[in-house]
Amino acid sequence: MSPFYSILSVWKPLTTTTLLTLSTLFTAPLVTANPTCTNLRIPLTATASNEVFPIPVGLNYSNPAAVSAFVQTVLGDAGTAYPLIPTTFTGIVAARYCEPEVTIANRSDVVQLFMSGVTENNLYWFGLGYPNGYDGNEYSTVDYASKQGYPTLAIDRIGVGNSTHPDPILQQQVNLEEAVSHQLVTMLKAGTAVPGKTFNRIIFVGHSYGSVLGNAQATNHPGDISAFILTGFGVSIIPVAADLPQTVPFPATLYAPRFAGFAPGYLVTSSEAGRRAYLWGKPGSFDEGIFEKDYDDEDVVGLGELLSIDGGLKEAPASTAPVYIITGDSDDVFCLAATCGDGPSSPQAQACALFPKAETCEYFIPVGTGHMISLHYSAQTSFQKYHAFLASVGF
User: Fold this and answer.
1) Contact at 8 Å (CB) between 73 and 54?
2) Cα–Cα distance measured from residue 378 to residue 167, given in angstroms and rounded to the nearest whole number
3) Where are the alpha helices (DSSP H) in the chain?
4) 152, 235 Cβ separation under 8 angstroms
5) Strand-pair category, 110-115 with 201-207
6) Confidence at 147, pLDDT banded by 50, 70, 90
7) Minimal CA–CA distance to 309: which of 184, 218, 211?
8) What is the tens place of the pLDDT at every residue in 272-303?
9) Is the pLDDT of residue 328 over 60?
10) Which of 39, 156, 192, 272 would you call most buried, defined as having the most Cβ atoms within 10 angstroms of its Cβ?
11) What is the mean pLDDT of residues 113-136?
């Protein structure tokens, strides 16, 4: 077995159906019942210069108001340059790799790399469940991509899910997490991340904080990614800071038994009403059942991620990869207004300015949809839109 990975488990459907189609003149896709998925534990080491934030002496992590006020102070003082210190992550990135149910020759060297937002892990991309998501595959980005012939790799970012949990303040920051993503891309291209697979083209699909990491990767390593799909994304951190208190951030270790032993800098959103207002759209735009499941099963956010998020929102002057942005018109994380609007003044259009050399930058604004793009009734439309964009730019 390669020293670069280990396989935890392989799941395959019991029944496989093969059929030939004439959807293309150049290849006859091989269709199976579902994607075939493999759980991986990928060891890697990455180093970056992280910021040293002035954590108040005696900060009470169990006081949501104090934690929120500190985050607001740091994010509100964007002009402050905090000291940098070399920081290394050595550990495991847990991931789920899925072979598509449709085999299309010109997509066999492409992989969609999924990067979730805070308090979410890889299950976000499977409709909050695996092998069966909420309401089947209705909210599964992986399932939709599989039907289009794309291999996918959905990871647990460091600090969430089954990945190694580093220091949530000193290590779990944008700079080091981007370095981890860069190492992972390097391994995907070298054939050392997924057993027996080498990928020449990487499509980065991010959500929220994951999209911020994509922006950072375009800035720091412009040759890594062939196309970016950035969902729940905007250019301003002002709303992020302004609305954080309503979620009532609270130490995960004191919140639920599944987080027992976590360092106090790992937080959850402890207010159901606050999470609804912050992350979800207008009434009637989502199923109450999936909202409840998301709240009940939420993962964690490291305090360092909240403090460093503005470090990922920078112009990527050398990246030429095409960019597609999906942010709902009711996204309270990146938009303070009652509606995010449309046109050149919208957060989506402004975000395109971060990619001045992109081959193209386009955006879609699903109506009534909040921050959790893949979990609203508009999910299938969003999936269709971004895959049509990928096809239009040669993927």
Assistant:
1) no
2) 36
3) 64-76, 141-147, 174-190, 209-220, 238-243, 252-255, 272-279, 288-296, 303-308, 347-352, 379-392
4) no
5) parallel
6) very high
7) 211
8) 999 999 999 999 999 999 999 999 999 999 99
9) yes
10) 156
11) 97
> What tokens does 356 get?
């001045």
- Residues facing 195 on adjacent strands: none
Q: How far apart are CA 130 and CA 122, in angstroms?
A: 10
- Quote the tokens at residue 279: 């992350």
**Distance between CA atoms of 78 and 268, rounded to whole angstroms?**
24
CA 251 to CA 264: how far, in whole Å? 5
| 387 token code pair | 């895959």
Across 12-160, the runs of DSSP E, i.e. the strands, are 30-31, 36-51, 84-99, 102-103, 110-115, 152-155
What are 3-28's pLDDT values in tens digits?
333 333 333 333 333 333 323 323 33
- In the sheet that holds 266-269, the strands lie side by side as 249-251, 266-269, 301-302
Please name which of 337, 313, 311 lies closest in space to residue 325, comparing C-alpha atoms: 313
Q: Tell me the pTM.
A: 0.91
Q: What is the CA radius of gyration of the chain?
A: 20
Element (H, E) at 251: strand 249-251
Q: Is 222 exposed, middle or buried (0-12, 13-18, 19+ CB in 10 A)?
A: middle
Q: How far is CA 168 from CA 11, 50, 89, 300, in A?
A: 32, 12, 12, 10
pLDDT score, position 339: 66
Mean pLDDT of 34-46: 97
> What gap in Å lies between CA 186 and CA 224, rounded to an integer?
8
Whether 132 contacts 63, CB under 8 Å: no
CA distance 169 to 345: 34
The reported pLDDT for the residue numbered 31 is 52
The predicted-structure confidence for 204-226, as pLDDT tens digits, reads as follows: 999 999 999 999 999 999 999 99
- 86 preceded by a cis bond (ω within 30 of 0): no
